[in-house]
Amino acid sequence: TILVFANRYFYFFWVSFFSTMSLSGYTMATSPSEIQEEYPIFSMLNKVLLTISLILLVIGIVFL
Hints:
The chain is mainly alpha-helical.
């Protein structure tokens, strides 16, 4: 049950944060060069959180 709750938090965080950031084009930086510097970090964090949420989702489905 803990994994199910953890999965929900990771998944909802990923959906809310990355969909908002991706769709709105929002970033903390304002100049194009700063945005290009931030994108690899943003992309890596996106992949890590998505992977964690998918793994926890599969574990939650298997054990429920």
